[in-house]
Amino acid sequence: MAIDKYMRERFFPHIWCPGCGHGTILNNMLRAVDELQLNQNEMVMVSGIGCSSRISGYVDFHSLHTLHGRALAFATGIKMSQPNLSVICPMGDGDALAIGGNHFIHACRRNMDITAIVMNNRIYGMTGGQYSPLSGSGITATTAPQKTIDREFDITSLSLASGATFVARTTAYHYREITKYIKEALQHPGFSVVEILSQCPTHFGRRNKLGDAPEMLKLYKQNTTRIGSEAKQNNPELIERGIFRQEIAPEYCAEYAELINRVQQG
Amino acid sequence: MAIDKYMRERFFPHIWCPGCGHGTILNNMLRAVDELQLNQNEMVMVSGIGCSSRISGYVDFHSLHTLHGRALAFATGIKMSQPNLSVICPMGDGDALAIGGNHFIHACRRNMDITAIVMNNRIYGMTGGQYSPLSGSGITATTAPQKTIDREFDITSLSLASGATFVARTTAYHYREITKYIKEALQHPGFSVVEILSQCPTHFGRRNKLGDAPEMLKLYKQNTTRIGSEAKQNNPELIERGIFRQEIAPEYCAEYAELINRVQQG
Amino acid sequence: MTQRTEFIQGNEVCVNAALYAGLDFFAGYPITPSSEIAETMAKQLPRIGGKFLQMEDEISSICSIIGASLTGHKVMTATSGPGFSLMQETLGFAVMAEIPCVIVDVQRGGPSTGLPTHGSQGDVYQARWGTHGDHAIIALTASNHQDLFSMTVEAFNMAETYRTPVILLMDEITGHTREPVNLPEQGEIPIIGRLRTSVPEGVDYHPYLPREDGRLPMSDFGGKHRYNVTGLYHDMWGFPTTDPNVIHGLIHHLMDKIENHAHEITRYREYYLDDAHTVLISYGCSARTALHVVNSRRRRGEKLGLLELQSLWPFPAELVRAKCAHAHYILVVEMNMGQVVHEVKKAVHEPERVYLANRVDGEFITPTDVRGIMRLIHGRGV
Amino acid sequence: MTQRTEFIQGNEVCVNAALYAGLDFFAGYPITPSSEIAETMAKQLPRIGGKFLQMEDEISSICSIIGASLTGHKVMTATSGPGFSLMQETLGFAVMAEIPCVIVDVQRGGPSTGLPTHGSQGDVYQARWGTHGDHAIIALTASNHQDLFSMTVEAFNMAETYRTPVILLMDEITGHTREPVNLPEQGEIPIIGRLRTSVPEGVDYHPYLPREDGRLPMSDFGGKHRYNVTGLYHDMWGFPTTDPNVIHGLIHHLMDKIENHAHEITRYREYYLDDAHTVLISYGCSARTALHVVNSRRRRGEKLGLLELQSLWPFPAELVRAKCAHAHYILVVEMNMGQVVHEVKKAVHEPERVYLANRVDGEFITPTDVRGIMRLIHGRGV
Amino acid sequence: MSRHRLIFAGSGGQGVITAAIILAEAAVLFEGQNAVQSQSYGAAARGGISRSDVIISDAPIHFPKVNQPNTLICLTQEAYNKFNSVIRPGGILITDTHYVSLDTRAEARIYHLPLYTSVMQEIGKPVVFNICVLGALQAITGLVRLDSLHQILKKRIPSRFLDINERALQLGAELGKNTEVQTH
Amino acid sequence: MSRHRLIFAGSGGQGVITAAIILAEAAVLFEGQNAVQSQSYGAAARGGISRSDVIISDAPIHFPKVNQPNTLICLTQEAYNKFNSVIRPGGILITDTHYVSLDTRAEARIYHLPLYTSVMQEIGKPVVFNICVLGALQAITGLVRLDSLHQILKKRIPSRFLDINERALQLGAELGKNTEVQTH
Amino acid sequence: MAKPKVQGHQIKRSWCKGCGICVAFCPKEVLELDQEQKATPERASQCVGCRTCERMCPDLAIAIELEQDDDATN
Amino acid sequence: MAKPKVQGHQIKRSWCKGCGICVAFCPKEVLELDQEQKATPERASQCVGCRTCERMCPDLAIAIELEQDDDATN
Ligand SMILES: Cc1ncc(C[n+]2csc(CCOP(=O)(O)OP(=O)(O)O)c2C)c(N)n1
Ligand SMILES: Cc1ncc(C[n+]2csc(CCOP(=O)(O)OP(=O)(O)O)c2C)c(N)n1
Ligand code: SF4
Ligand code: SF4
Ligand code: SF4
Ligand code: SF4
Ligand code: SF4
Ligand code: SF4
Ligand SMILES: [Mg+2]
Ligand SMILES: [Mg+2]
Q1: How confident is the model at residue G72 (pLDDT cuts 50, 70, 90)?
Q2: Are residues C88 and C151 in the same domain?
Q3: Is B208 within 8 Å of B140 (Cβ atoms)?
Q4: What number does CATH give the domain H6-69?
Q5: Which domain holds residue E14?
Q6: Which helix (DSSP H) or strand (DSSP E) does residue F4 occupy?
Q7: Domain closes at, from D215, D242, D265
Q8: Which residue minimizes the CA distance to atom 7 of ligand 8?
Q9: Is the pLDDT reported for residue A178 higher than 70?
Q10: Does B11 contact chain C (CB < 8 Å)?
């Protein structure tokens, strides 16, 4: 495979469960990198802690496996100090939006050229299936044996409101979109968020009786639609996929470079 | 004054600088409490750290002066444990949205019946005038001697996107609106955010050559308009004042009470 | 036997004991190896009309239990090292504002993310010194489920007695191991409730003025006394001050109310110490290994004894000194690079007789490890 | 004199020294009494093409400097107690991942929000034990601006030498006081740069394999070696492992690389120790008071001496033992409830001769305070 | 003082830990015995070998880990390869013919049983495989009575799944009873 | 060894700390003296008394705080009430007639000067009040040369404001020079 | 609304910090800062009792006393 | 698009975890799980080389070899 060269094959088979959507995201993210023919020496992957975060161990980039929730904070230092590097931040939903929520909204606000990927399985996979701020209500989880009453975030709305300049969403079923949106995000000169719904058959699927991985993937097909589609109008429950925003705004590192210029010019 | 009974007069004159908008907010917040004839023994004010947060020392409620950024997290415990209490959380812009940003968005999401008031002076007043995530770009601050390059949050959009069910904005100039929106917020059965632009003549005004307190207040008059006004259409730069959302959605404590019911019923 | 025997994990024991002690509010954020505490709470609390909150992180978890304590509830949070580190700022707030609460740290291998699924006792000093500024703290621990039950109840009792956060230092081994535990009947273990002020409405109540016996009666938020709570230095009404005398008084009060009651807080078990030449000192999971060694050596007639510490802070230096007075040598058994061993050295008269048997590779310390060190001390090589 | 004299605050000295040491990346979050460090950085860094970042909190501040260190920059953050508490989890990450960085804690009165605008030395033990799990740390301090300059430079040098976070413990007094400082010319104080690997592209590079001399050459993120960095226990390539042997090796390496070099890390000043009967031991701002007392007593012919510690961790126990060998008594002067005094007691042969002169009411400890304690020790009452 | 030490080893999804817990709980609640059950995890929450130690004794148990088991249950090849050497001389090894092929000699009484295949044939639900193992273990070691295990199943398992679990337990017990010791 | 200790006390906005810094900096940079300047804050970042201590000496200065000043400058009533008792016997007290009314006796040479009023009359900008105080202090104590203060002003103050500051300095110096010591 | 009868301007001098807000926003130019930078009702008789000063004062230093006092003017 | 010539199905058996995704989503029912729960191209000849299996496999265990290999099918 052409993507072999981006993989640390010695760590395969990876630790993810059979049918875990995170693997499909890895698979198609590498294709995006490959299609852009990016130089691995200029790629940095920064992740937090969670099943999703283990992804950084499998890619042959500079890889930084940090603390739960902090990936974007570390990434901000990397990008700011060395703006020529391509920085990808894959995060779990808990990682990005529970403990990491503040870094997430501030990263969106700052608009540094970092690509954030939220691998949203609506559950804390790594710690054994507690609910997350993306679970939404009515979900069974180890910390919600009687079903959740928490409302969920809408990651795309939150990203948009916080100032992210590229925002897209797709699912582990729509693998072509994964590659496409990540490609766009990597090329976007600003902060980009790609939310990818990712099945966790082990904790989310099993406890909520959604069947095995193929069945969960079929749900992604059924329950989602393209942004602004007619289907959405008929059934507002459908989750929209597509690019929600793709706009150019001042990029933080570029602005800072100008600031330096201004100061040094006197 | 009818609001005297809500004040701890022995601590007046308060520590705020001459012309500080925070005082005007205190003034008109108390009028809201007074107009609703709320029982002081059922009122809890929870604040963080900052000039704004000193407000909790001046009101004769149960008062909890916590840690920088954490007011809403403490408030969540208070409300959840004793849902009959009225909980008000005044916060500085830094308090609420820099270090406290994560608690802010999660409180919005949970929709507990807490009234959050953001006393937004677009600066860190207490620590001497560093810029905040609300300063926006082009602002002079002690940590931005060459002007900020950071983009700002829009508190109302962020609150809406995070799920707050009551969202309003006004300024220290529009004192009637302060009382009105806080009244509405206190009566709203869910999480409410009232953003109030508040002048800091000492740090924001002086460094940015905006004049003294009265001049800064005049700017609030000039630069704002009612939501959906014609003025806004003619001048999109204007900041909108008014109620952005007022919606009923499941309130967290009520939902939990139901959960208990369900479990105890078997 | 009126008691009910259960065969459960230490984490579940902790929950059962907390409920027994009167807890009805828990907030937490999942983390291995403590998550079962939150999970069991989530299941149990609604049954008794209590509240379980899963917060967005550990900081908000500890903040929210403090809030709930102020309204008059018995509260707890549970975490492991990384989360415990994040809680440090707020832990200091609870110390300063004198809010009763219990914080459970189910220790795993550190530093940093370290070894999430392996046992350790690496956070003992952190429990004492993790937050900034001078302060005193109470930390308890236990080696078996029956003791874990009582120490958890004690943690709540002490939190109320001293109006302070209490840290319960568990570890992955204790947390995840299942063994029988007898759940006591209500009344079997004494429960100390919230001491509420008797000052009537309208009369000046001083939330921060100790009574003659040193205790500080509280008044619930929502009750008839409206006072202030702050993390700044404050006067007896809870309002901020920079008066040097008040500050001096407050910091000494915060230290003394704990340190001067060290003897009342001290909890331990002893095995065969009367005639022991060799004293093993241990606590938490390692004490199981130590006791195994002591028992097996005693059967061979060797004069080994064990002092098992169940309260680590304030460190029971006097107890240690007394119990070690006649020891030829002292062996501290713990699963870290040496923490309690330093306190033992400070406590005893001849620190050069104090040795450390430890293990830090993620594996549970074995009797063989301990015996190996004993051979070395005796100059018998390995 | 080729040097430039400036009359500036300690916080500004710290910035000047950091730039001298080669810093070109700073991230922070304002907090009294450290904010002037951030403010001065914001002004100075763009001038030299460096980067200043104001982050959303202290956690992200320390995270981002670690990120920047990995790309090859010299980095620092600055805070005070509450922020330092929040940084503890990530500090442990830097220890575990062996990332050079400098963390300044300008101490103020604690615990909790405490006394934001008053000096204190209450975070000494926190610097050592604040993060969870076993680890070792370097912490430096200084009492005057000239030394503060050199200690700041040393902090960077040691961070690079030992590939570790170094903590610079300042205090409100040192931070805010203005006094003259001579800014040295480039070259006057040696600067230790990042040691980069000489392994060529394509050859296996081991980021976590110490060289024979104990140092671990780094490779910049963005450079030609792609490796992994994690807070989990890891092998010599930086990949997670649970192999007990590797874990054992790593934790010992992390401790030993610091503890075994205690003598090289130790920094101190001594005054009149040769014939001193009374040895004062102090550090940071309190050492100013101690030196004042020693000087004035010496003028009266009394045999007082001062050992001023400039490195607090690893604690220079041997140095203290040696310098106190002939002391009749030892008086530790510090602005806390007694922290370094415990280490001194552990270090010396007769701990009962060690006394504490302290002050914890927010006021700066005065010569009169110290003299009062000396009178007491001499049985002369107060 | 009688003391029996067991190691259950297999892979994550096989339910080895549950089996270990059921055995130990049965010993405690219905046999008046003392028991301790503990487990070890791999690098992550998932993947790798899943292992659980059980000690059953009539005396207090302090050290909870098993180094040399009297009985070793290995349900994957990896587990077998890793642990088969630590078994106590004269101890018992129980493995499954579907998952494990024996290769090295062990000084043990070896029960290499077609547990998985039988479960699939007779019940068709791989999820009760671990209970079947438990049945065999009971029959082979007699550590607890079969009825005690039944009691625990009743207590722990939702009634709609109880039947297949009981069938699996019975099936295991029969396979354990009727199988000759295999020695290599 | 000569050593002069000063306390500057006033309220937040009066610029007492800046005045203290300018004095000390002048002593260091242009007089070859040693100096230390420190400050204390009230409860909050604002409000309350603002105080700055300066020690000027030809020898090293270790203890940086002033307990008994040789010279005390009090620019508010509150500051005056709080500090006027700690002044060294024979020391100097400088106050302003607009802000302070003297009430208690102090064993000091007292300069109670119409600094604020003069600034308002002559220059009209209250912001240079502190520099005027500095001028008076210079004239009264002669701790540093007036020119040294000029140099520091030049260094620290944006050129567009330099003029009014220099005028204020001069004004203060004259008021200080021409005023008789008032004793109570 | 008929002009209410204003009884007086209660000004807590020790609370007033002289920010000038009441002076600037009083619609009737009733207020001034005095020598000591404290608000004072220079032209009290012009007061229409609109309470703008009372409501805008950040120091809660001003109160307007009306004949039949009715605080709820919102 | 003409049916590309499929040369073969590279399946890394040690990576495959038998999740069944490739089996479920292959449009041509080419794949099955074998006895050991590993994916195997039971009906290889039916394969149209669409790479759905390759792209959806969470274990990166399948690769399709086409005649003139062109990976960029996005
Ligand atoms: C400070 C801290 N708190 C908690 C944890 C425990 N923890 C590890 S991963 C995780 C959540 C994982 O969920 P998510 O981020 O959604 O990733 P997933 O595993 O689902 O891919 C948690 C709570 C931790 N490692 N550190
Ligand atoms: C953990 C922590 N970090 C930093 C600080 C310092 N600090 C106190 S208040 C404040 C910001 C105040 O700004 P804002 O919240 O906007 O309130 P304002 O003073 O402007 O009303 C900061 C940074 C602190 N007290 N604690
Ligand atoms: S637990 Fe869930 S998220 Fe984690 S590897 Fe398994 S399937 Fe994936
Ligand atoms: S500094 Fe600004 S925010 Fe703080 S009291 Fe003064 S004016 Fe108000
Ligand atoms: S608004 Fe208030 S503080 Fe300001 S001048 Fe008027 S009365 Fe005084
Ligand atoms: S009440 Fe209205 S008119 Fe009267 S003084 Fe106040 S602002 Fe002016
Ligand atoms: S999708 Fe991959 S892991 Fe799943 S069965 Fe097919 S080849 Fe195996
Ligand atoms: S390439 Fe397409 S047709 Fe061929 S096996 Fe894969 S999914 Fe089936
Ligand atoms: Mg998840
Ligand atoms: Mg602000």
Answers
A1: very low
A2: yes
A3: yes
A4: 3.30.70.20
A5: 3-183
A6: strand F3-11
A7: D265
A8: H26
A9: yes
A10: yes
